[in-house]
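Section 3.1: Structural characterization of target chains.
Under the original work plan, the team committed to producing a structural model for every single-chain target entering the pipeline before any wet-lab resources were allocated. The record below documents one such target. The sequence was received from the expression subgroup and is listed exactly as submitted; it comprises 327 residues.
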Amino acid sequence: MTIARGVVIPGSHLDRLRAHEDIVLLGQLGATSIRIGVDWSWMQPSAGAVDGDAVEFYAALTQTARAANVSLQFTLLEREVPKWFDNDGGFADAKWAGHWWPRWVEACADTFGDDVGGWVPIEHPLSVANRLFPNDPRRHGEVLDTVVTAWRDAWRILHGGPPIITSFGLEIVRPVDQTIPAEHNAKRLDQIRFQLWLRGLRDGIATIPGRADREVADLAGSFDVLGLMVRHERDTLGLLHRAAEQIELTGKPMTVTLATPAGTDADRELVIERFNAQSVEAATGLPLQAVLVTPTFDITGDERGLITRDRDLKDSGRMFFGTPDAG
């Protein structure tokens, strides 16, 4: 079975000077989709404002992608948010987030509309709460509740246009040690990863440990593609099946993204080989549409990419794209 290949370029890894060339290069290598993080801080330097240069830049990328026959997907929220948004509460303030987050989504929808190949409203939603309150379960739960509403709001705004894709970071959660607090924390994280998001999208109920269950209107079924992200390639098959068991796909496709590990490229080549094998096996019983890898390009301080800063394809990249070694 042939599975489409795609890549993720986080906003922090996007080289604006080479972005057009990079899209063409990736299309030539066989990528059918490219997911790019839109820089919210650049697009909206202050509340309600839109930077014309940023709009022009991203709009031009959609044209380049169309010419290269590549589906360009935009991620609207990664780990970082604008300072003006964070300074006045950000996602720690449900009222503030409920006012400005929908306006950001609306700005992107109105500006780029059907020119994009898909939307990823929130990349790894759990990371939003982890960034703000990693060691405070109560406040952590409050932020998660706000982010669930933010996802629902994005669905209401974007639904009916290009497909809306989730990007949930999943992993097998194990206690860091044998202590009771460690076991309790692992259980809580497991519940958040698999019950809050997957069962929430199925039943429309936000289930957050330590908080009363809450029914969220229009949450059930608020996705077009169930996208998952994994950090351990050996767990890919099991996590895909566990996710599919938690949610009723009803004909909707799945994608899975591998976050490549640090280490040598020879190590990553073996990781991608195993990831490819598990993905092929998963596709025999699941509607797996595409596999993706992140990051795509090396940058200073992070050389986990498939392609060097000089735009040379590494052996791990050849393994992923199925490109023969020129030698």
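Residues 180-203 form the longest helix (24 residues).
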